[in-house]
Amino acid sequence: MEKIVYKIINSKRNKWIVTLIVLFSMGAAVMMIPTKLVLARMLPGKSANTMSIYVDTATNASIKETQSVTTCIVNYLKQEREITDMEVYLGQGAPLDYAGLVKGSSLKRMKNQAEIVLNFTNKNDRDEPTYMMAHRLRPLIQGECGSIVPHTSIKFTEMPAGPPTLATIVVELYNPDEKALRKIAAQIADILEDTDGLVDIDVMQDDIYTKYNLVPDKEKIILSGLNVEQVNQIIYLAFKGMPIAEKNTKNQQDQIPIFLRLNEETRHVEADTESSLLSKLVSLELMNDKGMMVPISEVVEIKSAKSSPTIFRKNLKNMVTITAECDMVSQVYPLLEAREKMLEVLKADYNMSKVPGINTYMFDLIAVDKKTGDKILIRWDGEMKVSLDTFRDLGGAFIAALVLMFLLMVVYYKSFALSGIVLVGSFLSIIGVIVGHWVTDKIALYATDTHFFLTATSLIGFISLMGISARSSLLLIDFSKSLIAHEGMEKKRAIAVATATRAKPIMLTAIAIILGSLLLATDPIFGGLGIALIFGSIAATLVSLYFIPVLMDNAKALMPNEHEFEDQGRSGTWCILTDNIKSMFPKGEDKKSKAHHNDTLLYEDYECEDDTRTTWCRLIDNVKSFFPDEKEKKSDVKKLPEDDVPLQHEEDTPEAENKVMLSTKLTESIKALPSLKIDTKVYKKNKMLWNEMIDKVKAFLNLKTEDEIDHAYEKAKAERDFINLHNTGNKQFQKKDLDKAIESYEKALKIKEDKGTSFKLELAKVQKEKEEKKQKQKEDKTHEEKPKKDDSKDKSDTKKEKKSKKKKDDKE
Fold first, then answer.
1. Residue 666 binned pLDDT confidence (cut-offs 50, 70, 90)
2. How many CB atoms sit inside 10 A of residue 617's CB?
3. DSSP string for 546-565
4. Which of 129, 191, 455, 692 has minimal Cβ neighbours within 10 Å of its Cβ?
């Protein structure tokens, strides 16, 4: 893992490849939703142990006609093995259940209305779920029983998986004119009928039919020897019926009314015509005060009229409602298709426009009649409205979670870049969520011939994944910063090591989530949550291990502001001095010099070309001029003006004075550097920058002799070349890099030795002289302790020692 990650972040080409793969995956995943490769829905279908069938015949239908339809349905359903029993409610609704609360089951009181309740075997003991059974039985029953009575509506009502609504798709029409509403409602109902995936279309309004009113003729009644009340009672008694007496029993405290009316055959009219009704009235006769029988048809006038439909109002506005159910599809796509058809079909009679503004009624339309100018509002409601509200609330929660996470990360890291990395890593888990639903949908189609939808529970799983993904990114960032700050590790290597080290806990967390979510994946309601957690965890893990390191490598904020060298090997004078000098300059990369040093870590004779002058080149040149070679020392001494003081050895100048001289000379060399481009966000004033750099140089400089100066120079060259190749852009030298730099320095000494200019021999010569001086001091001490036995001998020995010393000095 470490090698793979390091190989990715160490190459710009590999980083671009990984970035493009992630961007392409993100775009492809998002495009699966508008291209319908992944279908979205509020909640999937729910399998229950009960289901209802609503029967609505024509408004003027009799209870007998309604019963004929329900009898046909019951006889057909008797063939189903999974149905244990059925309940038929004629002229009324069934007792309230979860779905009936909103669908108005308790308001059914008409003779043309009926409800059939079906009870099934336990859902866990049968293979066919309720929604699949409704999908299979609906076309069969509607074709078999829907034509018995004209204008009959048979609707299958399943138990809702989420909040109950009037229907899956509800179209509400608002206008004061009832005729205008009735006209456009019929057109919209036809459009919904032609839309694939929509079934059980119903216009919730009474049919207008012709009715006949029996109006008593008062003059004829008086002339016939009858009275008006007598005629009204006999007509009402014949067709409607009325209680005429009460019966008292011993076992009942209340009286039992005796209800009297004509039988069904006598009351039944063969056709809805005036002549057929008149023939019934002829058979009804009343006796007048003279004992003569008078036919009712002689004293009653028959007048035809149109029925008065029920007026529905919502928010004090006249309204007509059109309902439709979705059959094994999401409500989103049929709604959009029907809406487009409305814009095309209705534009012949209406000027169609969209409701301005962005709200939860974003699909609403306004239709203006071209002839009358009536403005009709077409509003979408039902489960679609609930879905929009739910996705709006979940989207708001998602945005709030993103903002809070970002602010928390900014406070924690004090960096917008690192906070953005955490946020991006959290958001990219949506790739796995969408792709996982696409894979599961293909499996579901192959196994059960049903779709697997992206639901509201899927979004809940995606939001919960954000915290898990953020934790993985936090682990990588914190551990990388720790390796850089405390272990002295190079940035790219620290990222690779952190990723390899934290890969195991990240994978274990993902595996635990996947195993726990397998139990949810098969649930009909929370299956989306399980799939989102499973595939989202896989995507989040891959993003954390391969894409987050790329973003971390590009983030400058990953480097600590103040690097503390805890390792004693990095506490050397030149290391600290070089670190502080390098921290004063903007980070950059000398691409040409880097390309020039591709083959080896060190070139002995390094010279910056005029066209490749960089900050590092100028710094090295100035440092190199401060540390002259042996050949340049003599010429420099000769060319020095009177005001300057030549660089002296330790034995000629006191240590404190020598430090001041060296610090002053190096300070002047650094001041002589050309103007640099300094990042204004980091260094606001150049003056503060130079003063701080000079103070650090004076504080850490601890060079004494020319030999040590040469040693430091060679070491600086080795470090410089190694950094140019392996640590470009890093703010600090790392311990691991220092070891390699020292190794390259030893190679440099070997190169010099091969050319006959071995600095190592010169250094050994200096060390030999130091040892001879120490040996001489020891001998002097031993001579002082011994008694002077022979003065003449001592004098001669002293002369010999002086001569030998003089010869050595001359040689030196």
1. low
2. 18
3. IIHHHHHHH-GGGS-SS---
4. 692
